[in-house]
Design a protein that fits this description.
single chain, mainly alpha, 6 helices
Length: 155
Amino acid sequence: MAEVSHPAASAHQPWFITAPGETDVLMVVMGIILLLSVLMFGLLYFRLHALPDRYAHKKVQLEIVCVLGLIAMFTHIHIFWIAGLLLALIDLPDFSSPLKRIAGSAEKIAGIKPGEGAVELPTNTIEETSGKPTKRYDRPALVIEPDKARALRQG
């Protein structure tokens, strides 16, 4: 088929002008480039937003940093992301391990098996009817003779 150009068109047309009925190669290439660039910028965006999460991995404050990152991503308020990044870079001391050791030592001193100290005990130890203390079978009885107690207080 012979190429028919418009009478107002110039004699020399650039290479990116396609003839009617043919595939526009430049548009297909630009569509692929646009799709790849959107995917690459999205990947960069998500990797940048996950940066505080990676820094806070295996730290005490991981959940707080993750929540701040999600809030920053969904609200587009960047101060949450900055706060999450700063919180991830700071090493907070671990308070739970020493407290668990203290609780374990207190259980050992009290004669309770390890881990059983968190059992829910009755809140009142005095019977409402008689006013006398009830005997508690969950703890060993501590008996100090009055003379020894007096000597301990004075000594």
